Amino acid sequence: MFGLASFCRVLLVFLTILTGSESISSMILEPIKSTGEEVGLIFIPGAYIKAEQYRKTARAIQLATELRVWVALTGNYFYNVVNTNEMSMAVDAAISELKKAGMTSETYVGVAHGWGGYYLRDYASDSRLKALVLMGSTITRTTSLRDFPIPLLTLAAELDGVTRITRIAVEYEKLTHNTTGFFKGLYRTPVIYIEGANHAQFASGELRPRLKSADLKADISDKQAHREIGKYLNSFLTATFSSNDSQIDEALDQLSVAFLRSVKKFQPFLDVRNLDTDGEESMWTLLAQEYFAEEYGGRVAVSNKILQNPWFFGKEPTISFNDDHMIIGTIALIHARDRTDFRKLLRGKESPIEINMKLVSKDAIWKALGSQNDTSLRSEPNTCKSLNRLALILALSSSSEEARERYFSRGRPIILENDAMRGFNTLWAPTSLQTWEDEEGLHVRAIALVTSNDHYCKVMSPYRAMEWVNVDSLRAYRAQG
Ligand SMILES: *[C@@H]1O[C@H](CO)[C@@H](O)[C@H](O)[C@H]1NC(C)=O
Ligand SMILES: *[C@@H]1O[C@H](CO)[C@@H](O)[C@H](O)[C@H]1NC(C)=O
Ligand SMILES: *[C@@H]1O[C@H](CO)[C@@H](O)[C@H](O)[C@H]1NC(C)=O
């Protein structure tokens, strides 16, 4: 359909071509060192951020390195947001300004922040840029780091409320995928995070209100954040472009140290994420069934299968016997988030929306084990709510001590509501896990179905709890709209 949206897009392109070359401008910062290899950093700003707002960041980089760093801060974009058409114009203009100012080498490096990164990453693959730095931004989810054509530094902030730490964990995971190419990847495409920094601190001053309200409160000062940015850009740029062996050695060493910190930070996120789904099985559903079996846990073996609808809808959990062991076959449906929506590129959550579990009830286990006569051992069955509590406990124990302290001191808590009961599968199936936010925190109400044989639960994924603890809980509540 050729609607208003496409008309506006055509008009925007036209206006950009008409006015773009005049409006885009670069602010040049000359090197402060007189020796060292020449490197030209071309900054592409985040949405609605002015060129001038990167001056302090750029200065911190120049101060941190022995390289002779030139800087071009691009800005004055049409609508204050860079777009595909303006990108090549901006880089070309920056290069010609750098040359005019006296830069002689051809070592140009793109440095993009937030939204700017989503345009620069596509442009950079086939351009005059020799390396790329993404600050609070990433390459696409499906591009492997190894296949990225030029060296790439993904520099993240722990308290980035826009490009969240859970999204960066996906980039970190790519780095660990290939063990043979591991060290090469570590130096060529490092993924590093800055502790206590937020999205705004890659620049200086204020973000526009919409982004500002998404961002989290930083734990370090702007000055400290800029010093850290300088440190890591120096490591990356020196490792990539320097010809001084002792400086390269030191840079590689710094990149390894930064990587070890990343392992400690990101690996627990991935471990908890993998509980939701590990290929064909939901480990979390297995654990839930064992938790429901409680005192009989030692006498049952549990298996699981992840299914999609309509198959999930039609299946029931099973009990079978193998020698004296009882085998419970559970079923799970993982309701993942839609990642195709371009507007959710920023700020999107990584964790599933909900986990649907079909478990065998404790009563059925009790009967099947022939323990009717043994009434003394029998305790009340657990609730779906208790699984949500378990998810939260796991999320907390898998988070760093600093993150836990932040959650308890200034995070809005997860509030577990009593289960909403449904009498039939036909009513349980279409009802979603209920979650809602207010000043108090995040309310979570599981949807349960209990029959003499089955215990169905729609519950929060542990990764959702972990994402809440580490990111969303730290935001002040803002009514939607
Ligand atoms: C791992 O990386 C090496 C070197 O970068 C590459 O040659 C190899 O094909 C990669 N292996 C896999 C399984 O991706
Ligand atoms: C290499 O760097 C080190 C440390 O910055 C410096 O002491 C040394 O003089 C440099 N070597 C050359 C050949 O420039
Ligand atoms: C339960 O007790 C009754 C009589 O006390 C006995 O006949 C029956 O076999 C017992 N059931 C099991 C499963 O142990």
Automatic annotation (TrEMBL):
<feature type="domain" description="Alpha/beta hydrolase fold-5">
    <location>
        <begin position="40"/>
        <end position="204"/>
    </location>
</feature>
<dbReference type="InterPro" id="IPR029058">
    <property type="entry name" value="AB_hydrolase_fold"/>
</dbReference>
<dbReference type="GO" id="GO:0016787">
    <property type="term" value="F:hydrolase activity"/>
</dbReference>
<feature type="signal peptide">
    <location>
        <begin position="1"/>
        <end position="23"/>
    </location>
</feature>
<keyword id="KW-0732">Signal</keyword>
<protein>
    <recommendedName>
        <fullName>Alpha/beta hydrolase fold-5 domain-containing protein</fullName>
    </recommendedName>
</protein>
<dbReference type="InterPro" id="IPR029059">
    <property type="entry name" value="AB_hydrolase_5"/>
</dbReference>
<dbReference type="Pfam" id="PF12695">
    <property type="entry name" value="Abhydrolase_5"/>
</dbReference>
